Structures are given as C-alpha cells and as structure tokens.
C-alpha cells in the first residue's frame, strides 16, 4: 500500500476533455452525438488507477468539427497554468479525430517551451461501445504523458507522433493517423520503443516566451488546385483575406496564366500573403523546379516546405496572433520553430 501511495504522488496526469467521438453515444436515430461519459473514465477504463494519479476536467464537449481557435487558446492557457504550478507530470487532451491535427499543431506553436509532454488522443469508435480503440488510446496516451518527450504529441493506435507532423489519414481503420514526413517518436508494443534522437531538443526551446495571444485571426484560405479551376471567380473575395494557401501539384506546379498572375500580383501588392504547399502528403515542395513555380516565387509567394496542411494553417494564424507583420511572418513560416518542418540542407 505504501508503494502504491508513493506511485500516486509521483505519477500525476491532468486529463483535459474536449469531446469528440471518444465521448459520444448514439441515440435511437443512430447518429453519434456528444454524451457525458468522459467525466467518469474509471467506469470505462478502471485500470487507469494502476498507471497514475489523474484528474479529469471537461473543457468542452463537442464534435471536433465544431472546434474553433478560441478553444486552442483556452487549452493553451489551461496547460500553461498547470505547467507553471508544477501540479502534474504530463497532460492528456481527449479530442475528436477530425481536427486533432489542427489542435495539436496550434498548441505546439502556442506552447513552444513545454517542460512536460502534452498528448492528444481520441478514438475511431466511442469509448462506451464494444470493440472500441479508445480504451487502448487513452492508456497509451497516459503512459506517453509520463514517459514521452516534452512536446505536443499525438498517440494513436500504439504510435506516438509529433503533434505538428500528424494528420488524420484514415476514416474506417483504427490506424487513423500518420506522420507523412517524419518518423514516429515512439511505439507501444509489449514494451515501449522510443526514437530519442528525434525528440525536439531542449536546447531549441525559446528563452523568451511569447504571451499566448488574446485572439487568433481567421484562418487563411486554403485552395486545392484542380484542373479547370477558374481563379478569377475568387478574385473579388481576396480583398477580405489576409493570406491564402494554394495547394499545388507535385513540387509546386500550377497553371500560371495571365489571369492568375494578375490576380496574385495584385493581391500581394495590396498587402496579402500567398503561400504554396503541395497536395502530395509525402515530400517537400520545391518552388522553382518548374517555370510556373518560379513565376510564383517572382510574384512574392512563399513555400511551405514539407509542413502538413494543419501545421501550415495554424502556424500562420499563431504568428499573426502574436502581432507579427507581413515581412516577419513571411520569414518565420520557413523557419523550423518547433519541429514542424524538415530544414533544407545548405
């Protein structure tokens, strides 16, 4: 008993619940909707007590498609308070899978100097259903929060990914997440395997912390290019957008014609920012490989290297939320701030 009491004093985990499929139930019509089951995790996962002394706080209880940037800020502030108080050894965020990659990425920029692991997880099936994956995901996330690297992470189906490198890539399988351009940081099997050489180094933590912004701007427009797209139809609405992300083919190729050139050049001249990323999940964009990509560079567009859509969108939002200007944002987007991109070789 004394040993158990000692364990509980040293293994402390704060669990922040935001809802999502993991906490849903289906009423008579069969459509899943948020329920109130995550407040009592011990009912569904009684062995949690064997891992840690944990507490659960319900921050929100929504379908993750309803999550907005305000919740990212709420989570970041709650995590910051807990870190400053040193009242836990790790933090787990229960989250819906649809926007988990966005929240994980945003938190990595809002909390760049973490001194403990923050682990997001959820489930493809609700916790209260038979054959759920959520049970194992929660247990794995707790262990990751106690023994994993001190950064924002996603635990899913026995794999630990860097949060700002992860994307939801499957709908009907339990391996719902992957990290297209960066290896997993850990793997849970009969025993744990950690790729410690890939952990974000503490020497690269900022010495001066930006305060968490009061608000974040609206998301930049994300426009996947498809053959036959009439960009001129979007031109009148560009005046209301502070930035746009064009998702190009391959290494950064677009059909740059006179109409697109005129629209983008005018948009940039009026203060807008244009960023290019590839539609292809794996690999890095290389503007300038083809002549159209070079033309985009000459118009003032900047590339997103191998960042995920989630990492690029939230990075721009947080940088603008910090109050940075156009030139600074343009410079910072290509810098590796918290392990979100692969640094180009000199």
What would a concise description of this structure say?
By secondary structure, the protein is α/β, with parallel strands linked by helices.
Core attributes:
16 strands, 346 residues, alpha/beta, four-stranded parallel beta sheet, eight-stranded mixed beta sheet
Q: Biggest sheet, strands in spatial order?
A: 4-1-5-6-7-8-11-12
Number of DSSP E strands: 16
The secondary structure category is alpha/beta
Head-to-tail CA distance between termini: 58 Å
Radius of gyration: 21 Å
User: Which spans have pLDDT < 50 for at least 5 consecutive residues?
Assistant: 1-9
Number of helical stretches of at least 4 residues? 10
Task: Tell me what the structure shows.
With 346 residues, the protein is α/β, with parallel strands linked by helices. It contains 10 helices and 16 strands. It has helices at residues 2-10, 41-44, 69-85, 100-110, 134-147, 235-238, 258-269, 291-299, 309-321, 326-332; strands at residues 12-19, 24-25, 33-34, 53-62, 90-94, 118-121, 152-156, 159-162, 167-168, 177-178, 186-188, 192-194, 221-224, 243-248, 273-278, 302-303. The strands form 4 sheets. Strands 4-1-5-6-7-8-11-12 form an 8-stranded mixed sheet, with helices on both faces. Strands 13-14-15-16 form a 4-stranded parallel sheet, with helices on one face. Helix 4 links the parallel strand 5 (90-94) and strand 6. Helix 3 packs across helix 4. The longest helix has 17 residues, at 69-85. The N and C termini lie far apart (58 Å).
């Amino acid at each position: 008993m004394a040993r158990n009491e000692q364990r509980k004093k040293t293994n402390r985990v704060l669990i922040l619940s935001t809802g999502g499929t993991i906490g849903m139930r289906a009423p008579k019509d069969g459509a899943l909707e948020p329920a109130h089951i995550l407040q009592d995790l011990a009912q569904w996962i009684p062995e949690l007590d064997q891992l840690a002394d944990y507490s659960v706080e319900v921050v929100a209880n929504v379908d993750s498609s309803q999550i907005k940037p305000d919740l990212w800020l709420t989570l970041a502030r709650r995590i910051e308070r807990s870190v400053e108080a040193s009242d836990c050894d790790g933090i787990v965020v229960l989250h819906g899978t649809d926007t988990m990659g966005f929240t994980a990425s945003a938190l990595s920029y809002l909390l760049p100097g973490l001194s403990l692991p923050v682990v997001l997880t959820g489930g493809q099936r609700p916790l209260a259903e038979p054959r759920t994956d959520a049970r194992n995901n929660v247990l794995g996330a707790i262990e990751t929060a106690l023994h994993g690297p001190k950064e924002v992470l996603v635990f899913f189906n026995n794999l630990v990914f860097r949060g700002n490198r992860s994307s939801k890539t499957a709908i009907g399988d339990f391996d719902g997440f992957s990290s297209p351009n960066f290896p997993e940081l850990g793997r849970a099997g009969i025993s744990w395997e950690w790729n410690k050489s890939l952990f974000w180094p503490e020497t690269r933590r900022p010495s001066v912390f930006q305060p968490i912004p009061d608000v974040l701007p609206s998301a930049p427009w994300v426009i996947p290019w498809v053959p036959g797209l009439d960009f001129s139809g979007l031109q009148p609405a560009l005046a209301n957008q502070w930035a746009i992300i064009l998702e190009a083919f391959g290494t950064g190729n677009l059909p740059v014609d006179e109409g697109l050139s005129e629209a983008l050049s005018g948009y940039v001249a009026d203060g807008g920012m244009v960023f290019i990323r590839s539609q292809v999940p794996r690999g890095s964009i290389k503007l300038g490989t083809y002549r159209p990509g070079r033309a985009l560079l000459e118009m003032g567009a900047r590339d997103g290297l191998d960042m995920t859509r989630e990492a690029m969108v939230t990075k721009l939002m947080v940088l603008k939320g910090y109050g940075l200007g156009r030139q600074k944002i343009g410079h910072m987007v290509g810098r590796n701030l918290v392990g979100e991109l692969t640094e180009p070789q000199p």
